[in-house]
Amino acid sequence: MLFIAPFRRRCVPRNPIKKFMSTSKESGTPLHLLPSAAGAASYALSEKLADEQASRGVSMSTILSHAGLPMSHDGKHNQPLSPPINLATTYERPPDGHYADDGWVYSRESNPTRKLLEDVMGQLETTISTQVVDTSPTSNDDSCKHADGYAFSSGMAAIASLLLAHKSPVNVLIPTDVYHGLPTQFAKALSDHGVLHKSVNMTNCDALKDSIEKVMSTDNGRGGSIVVWMETPSNPLCQVTDIKRVCDMVDEIRQSTGGSLRITTAVDSTWAPPFISQPLKLGADVVVHSGTKYLGGHSDVLLGIVCTSPFTSQGKWLSERVRAVQTSIGSVPSPFECWLTLRGLRTLHLRVERCSKTALELAHFLESHPSVVKCHYPGLRSHSHHDIASKQMKGMTSTNENNLFGGMLSFELESEAMAVAVAGAVRIIRRATSLGGTETLIEHRYSIEPPERRVSPKGLLRVSVGLEDVNDVKEDLEKALQIAAKVVLKDIK
Ligand SMILES: Cc1ncc(COP(=O)(O)O)c(C=O)c1O
């Protein structure tokens, strides 16, 4: 198999250089190597040494830059550097009638391009950046374990599949501030199939504990499963849930029941992709992404990811069940979407570093602007969860000195009219839903949320910060705020 998961070790001979050496018959001393033989010999030796390097690991930037690329050469052929998009839906058996052990049979069940993406995602959720001092409880023996990654046709398909992997009735505790698509999925699809939900203030651990205990005391809680759903930062108010604190609390509850309770800690980390945050290393059982956003990164892919933890027993239990739902329901992405997501991943670190820096600057600007009532961004010191965000939105940069708080922020204006007017006046920023692309987007959330499940204040605008020059975006916002004030306050001169 030419295309292998990145940084997987290869078996190499014990003394790889020997076969390239020729010796003088008389003296037995080595002769000069031809350049081509030298290249081949040093490649073979580097493969051998790569074993040692692999045990030290490489930084996340390097894993990302090579996402999906073959990590070693077969030594014989000119090899394509970008992986192929493997479109085959079916695979021909060998003449003996048995499918070979390489796993490919039918692409709903497994596909080489999808597998490349799933392997990289599993690696990203658990890898340790070599330059970063890792203080997580899993940093020693477990450091080389990778999560199991599963790709889906959208973020919502990933979420639904994860919930269906649980034993019903499934009692989901969701944050009060959450992507509105989640309660919509419950209302329109899953509530008729044994998935119940309740909104809880996820940033208040005591309130959450009370809610869990209440569910546990019901027949549904005892007979089915409980899922504690975190979305952090949350959509659209940028609230930050303390993942480690919640997971530790849930662990205590588990232990108090002797492990008989099926309870999952799940994190939708769409707003904080792997280069910013790694929820599984903070104790979560499972992490979910809308790959449509930062992972794809160019507003042209629809895809979802689920990664189950190799560190928790609930994560391990879920892994096989998620895979069973994924392949039996067939909620899988096309190979092309997987390929585009792999391509997006190769620049994820650069994109999230850039948009985090720009977002912080814009947040400072908005916070001090006279027309802005409130700016929500976890990187602001004034944000009520700034300390927690600083702990868990690390930024896997080579020095780990800088936090990365992501590219999402929201701000509130005095009225709905003012908010819509600001969105109407921007020239560089685009008026569109979604997030995580190269272009800065602005959205009046209140008018897109279903009336019965609104979470956004009327005057709120959400911004997905892109990769433009920060001064251009700031100026665009400044002008839009001025124009909106003139229009709404009837101050047109
Ligand atoms: C936080 C969050 N989770 C999940 C989703 C759903 O993802 P998708 O649109 O890929 O189904 C979204 C979409 O906006 C989101 O913002």
From TrEMBL:
Signal sequence annotation: none
InterPro entries xrefs: Cys/Met-Metab_PyrdxlP-dep_enz, Cys_met_metab_PP, PyrdxlP-dep_Trfase, PyrdxlP-dep_Trfase_major, PyrdxlP-dep_Trfase_small
Listed GO biological process terms: cysteine biosynthetic process
N6-(pyridoxal phosphate)lysine: residues carrying this PTM: K293
Keyword Signal in record: no
Top-rank taxon, per record: Eukaryota
Keywords: Amino-acid biosynthesis, Cysteine biosynthesis, Pyridoxal phosphate
Pfam families xref list: Cys_Met_Meta_PP
Entry-linked Gene3D superfamilies: Aspartate Aminotransferase, domain 1, Type I PLP-dependent aspartate aminotransferase-like (Major domain)
Cofactor dependency: pyridoxal 5'-phosphate
EC class of the enzyme, as a word: lyase
Assigned EC number: 4.4.1.1
Pathway: Amino-acid biosynthesis; L-cysteine biosynthesis; L-cysteine from L-homocysteine and L-serine: step 2/2
Tagged with keyword Metal-binding: no
Family stated for the protein in its record: Belongs to the trans-sulfuration enzymes family.
Protein name per UniProt: cystathionine gamma-lyase
Species for this entry: Cyclotella atomus
Species lineage: Eukaryota, Sar, Stramenopiles, Ochrophyta, Bacillariophyta
